[in-house]
């Protein structure tokens, strides 16, 4: 079985390697032959809409599109491609509009036409490449070196590999058991809360048997005196989007986080869903100090993740760092807000450098924070690995012409040493999870380094059912950096004292 990616070498690319020039030549040459088959998507997105796939609904239309990204190495040009979706108004030029910006009454249609399996990606790209070659573009499949990262994890029952890793099974024999704590469920709807508690008790017995980590359950309102530091707390709220915008709720979150109360916010409408309850128990177990498994790293260096969030509406940028110790399995998050800034300000970089790093730390940065390479590597002599969360290419496995999702940990190495890593796999063929792109100017991305990064991805996080695809410190930094969504709520309730993330504080 071969590991492949939708990456092609462009043999006759010309003599000007600038991506903008390459894109102009690429699309113009294609459209001279296939002008009725594709439309250029307006804007910065380098993509072509497939006319034959157009679907119209209530004055809106959806096009399957082929997105292209150009890379140059050693006088060779490579083109990454994949299948995307594009929503726009009908009978207008094709200009992509975010699906979340479409009217609420169209969201059902949006979901029905969205989502592509790995087979959809490969079939669409191969058809596109065939048409490109008919137009004289001379594309050929790139020959990339492949491998599979298989980190080893330690549990209470011994060592296991990625293939054997099961979140719920690991809770039966964890590396470190959770400290039993009482659980308080806070709600304005006691009837729903009692039904939820019955579901919670049954699920806990199924997973843990007689070794229960929740030592007593009670129901309470949201009065200040009902929150205790030696208990676990669940906040059953009406709706998460309205909840995080309400100033009174924000003040409650601020007070709890400042007091280091351990809590979890749960949407009341999801409280009876068995999958939600399983995820909730897993999260509570970790919040109670349990460690289901640990990774056996090749390199014990401290890991520091950097990310940033920006909001033009608020005029703010948030710079976040997450420090993760492989020795004691602990993480700390630091952040600082400032006026809107495209690159990390020098003063903030200096503060993060002091708080996050130690001698010989490994820095994982968001792929857009280019300036941090010089600020962290040249000033402090640290190794920096850039992680692009949204690469264009996709990875797949092929056996006798049959295309399948690549295994967790499968990777391909580009000629310049960068790596495309399939860090997580969805639960079904339609639930395709994109790979991540790794690159570094300071450290060689050897199989040992890739294995350690894959191990960081597979450490216990917020969910047992939905795998994350980012190394854990990057995942936490990414959530904490969000300024225009409710993701910051998911970082709270761990005793990390991050009350500054709550908007009510920012606006007061």
Automatic annotation (TrEMBL):
Record InterPro entries: Piwi, RNaseH-like_sf, RNaseH_sf
Residue stretches making up the Piwi domain: 232-494
GO molecular function: nucleic acid binding
Alphabetized SUPFAM superfamilies for the sequence: Ribonuclease H-like (SSF53098)
Homology family: Belongs to the argonaute family. Long pAgo subfamily.
Protein name: Protein argonaute
Organism listed in the record: Marinobacterium iners DSM 11526
